[in-house]
Amino acid sequence: MDLCHVPAAREKGWYLALMAPNVKGPNYAWLDPSRLYCHPQGLQDCMADLLQPFQGDPIDMVAGIDAMGFILGAAVAATLQKGFLAIRKAGHLCVQTLAQPYTDYSGREKVMEVRTDAISPGLRILLVDQWVETGGTMRAAIQLVERLGGVVAGVAAICIEDSEGGQWIRERYKCAHCVPPGLQPRFDRHQFGWD
Questions:
Q1: Which residue, 31, 35, 32, is CA-closest to 3?
Q2: What local confidence, expressed as pLDDT, does residue 30 receive?
Q3: Which of 8, 60, 64, 186 shows the smallest number of beta carbons within 10 Å?
């Protein structure tokens, strides 16, 4: 899809067709959503779809997960006129941090961290990442927020797959994502829904 083209009928998720499949092999994610960030209307419609379920909800801050969640999270924070907190991979923050080990979508053991001075008890945080595949990364972010006394106001991602981890998150937290129900099974199998 042309980065300047805007379809006449813009149904939920129309912009998903802007994403590009992996052409580099198994060391990369199966799909690259970053192309839709280049499309002005696609990004705006993605933000509207992600935020619609949270209209009227009290949200004090938005937290984005390293690294692609920074792009989407910062856009969400700007739209909501809230502050933005980066939840980082371990070793990148030069301040006091709280760390949480986790297993990412590829099965690798990792550690993420958050600064300890940004979350006060009761602060309502909307967690944002580009994609929730197995749920391990998002679950670690949830644990960091809750260990510091924050409240997870919700979880937003372009896609929350129907994996065991994705189901765990959906059962416990208010969630929003952009994949229409008819395309969800194809995204869960890592197949495009428009080819």
A1: 35
A2: 77
A3: 8
Element (H, E) at 111: strand 109-115
Task: Report which secondary-structure segment, H or E, holds 61.
Answer: strand 61-65
Q: Is the peptide bond before 67 cis (omega within 30 degrees of 0)?
A: yes
Tell me the angle at which helices 40-51 and 68-80 cross, rounded to the nearest 10 degrees: 70
Q: How far apart are CA 139 and CA 160, in angstroms?
A: 12
List, for the chain, all residue ranges whose pLDDT scores fall below the cut of 70.
1, 27, 192-195
What pLDDT does 115 receive?
98
Q: What is the DSSP letter of 28?
A: S
Q: How many CB atoms within 10 Å of residue 20?
A: 12
| pLDDT score of 176 | 98
| Predicted TM-score of the model (pTM) | 0.94
In the chain the beta strands, taken as DSSP E runs, fall at 20-21, 31-32, 61-65, 83-89, 97-103, 109-115, 124-128, 131-132, 151-156, 159-160, 175-176
- Give the residue among 182, 192, 64 at the shortest CA–CA distance from 128: 64
Does residue 167 sit in helix, strand or coil? helix
Q: What is the pLDDT of residues 176-190, one digit of tens each?
A: 999 999 999 988 988
Residue 5 three-state SS:
coil
The two beta strands, 131-132 and 124-128, are unpaired
